[in-house]
Amino acid sequence: MASTKMPMAKALNESLRKALETDPKVLIMGEDVGKLGGVFRITDGLQKDFGEDRVIDTPLAESGIVGTAIGMALRGYRPVVEIQFDGFVFPAYDQIVTQLAKMHARALGKVKLPVVIRIPYGGGIGAVEHHSESPEALFAHVAGLKCVSPSNASDAYWMMQQAIASDDPVIFFEPKRRYWDKGEVDTEAIPGPLHRAVVAREGTDLTLAAYGPMVKTCLEAAAAAEEEGRSLEVLDLRSMSPVDFDAIQASVERTRRLVVVHEAPVFLGTGSEIAARITERCFYHLEAPVLRVGGFHAPYPPARLEDEYLPNLDRVLDAVDRALAY
């Protein structure tokens, strides 16, 4: 067993290193990913060890970066693209949703585009405008794209490996405020399926379903609720497209209540689809309506106000109280 405690950022770095070592067709592209090692140092040291032909510093042109990656994938490469910050992805949105997501269907399955697009996302780091967005619902809505987000170092390591190995395009959302959270990573483990949700904490009274940065918040809420005699189950969804509805249904059939938590605005967020689908599937099991906790339907605020914007322990526990009051 090769288990080591490391931050999520280091786990991602080790995972990318492993992919570069394993498959010569894997390439890393993006703004400042080479000499600088990325603004969060996720690609630190990789250009030095694998060369400028494998770890490529690109111009500041997200549309061009993704367009180039699509062309390289068509020639048999497996590009891993970094979008430096979440809010910078939109110049590339056209390439992603009209080309990357559609090519497999357009070619009647004859063409595969194994492209991974890494997006550090979410708030909590005191950044300026366009650096704290949570745009996952915009991509989860698009058929042809897979969207995932790890919540811990171990998942970051293994989910990145699985995303790169996938023949489908994967949008890999990295919760940037969890980059420095440490966890055990077993580099010799056998990982479960990429899109399978996992129970992060067992409980009997209510299910908290979350992904990425909000899983830690939900675990903290479950620990706080336990002191009041309440048993909350925390389900780490890990994937926003496809969603593991079977796992959510199984949990809700045990607990009979569901609260979905994400940083992105509640309005038309991924929690909306989960709430609708679980209401259809579990109507006769639910003791309360499915509730959602998330950001407000407003532009992401200046850093001094982000603590008021982001879902926190109190807002999660307030939803728990409302659900248990039915």
Automatic annotation (TrEMBL):
Superkingdom of source: Bacteria
Keywords: Oxidoreductase, Pyruvate, Thiamine pyrophosphate
GO molecular function: magnesium ion binding; oxidoreductase activity
Domain Transketolase-like pyrimidine-binding: 6-181
UniProt KW Oxidoreductase keyword: yes
One Pfam family it belongs to: Transket_pyr
Cofactor(s) demanded: thiamine diphosphate
Name of the protein described by the UniProt record: Pyruvate dehydrogenase E1 component beta subunit
Organism: Streptomyces pini
